[in-house]
Amino acid sequence: MIVPTVPQGLLLFLLGGVFLYFLQAGSRTFYYTDSASEPGATVGQLSFLVTGTIPTWFLGLHQAIPSSNGIAAALLLTLSVTVYEWARQTIWGRRFGLGWGEQVPDALCATGPYRYIRHPIYLGYQLAFLAALIALPHWSTAAIFLVNAALFTYAALDDERKLAASPLAADYAAYRERTGMFLPKFRVTAAGPGR
Fold first, then answer.
1. CA 109 to chain centre
2. Among 7, 66, 84, 186, who pairs with 124 as Cys (CB 3.0-4.6 Å)?
3. Average pLDDT by consecutive 10-residue portion of the chain (195 residues)?
4. Spatial separation of the C-alpha atoms in residues 96 and 104, rounded to whole Å
5. How far apart are CA 115 and CA 113, in angstroms?
6. What is the dihedral angle through the alpha carbons of 80, 156, 51, 60, rounded to the nearest 10 degrees?
């Protein structure tokens, strides 16, 4: 076991703590009728605790964080929380459901970060796991990142399946054409003759 420096200890606290924050903030944001019948709540809780907070804090007490990795991880973690909060504030009160649930929002949301990408909440989660990997490069954090990237991509695809089968299907199909899943779509326009 190593004794982390004050900056490393603070970064570890934030890296592990962000997953606890996702649990707490998500429980106040997402709409669900019965948490027992919403598998997304359980999956998210297990993911954030078992593959997020606990391993990050444990590994952080056994591995030093190089300064360059710590800075990069802190910047990525800031981006993660910024994207997550921007998305969370945008959907507040719009009845967005939990992953793997059956709740479909009452209307399509194409404002805030949803103007550019379809799944900013899941992107925020993935960026936090990537920040942990960058801070603590290890086979276990690499595996944790890959598992959670796959998990939240699957959740996004499941959400898209529900929306494609809902009354919002036509609007959602047009929305998908102009936005990326996790990264914005950039349209390249061809220059016409004489330009």
1. 17
2. 84
3. 87 94 84 68 88 94 93 97 96 80 83 96 97 96 97 94 93 95 80 55
4. 7
5. 5
6. -20
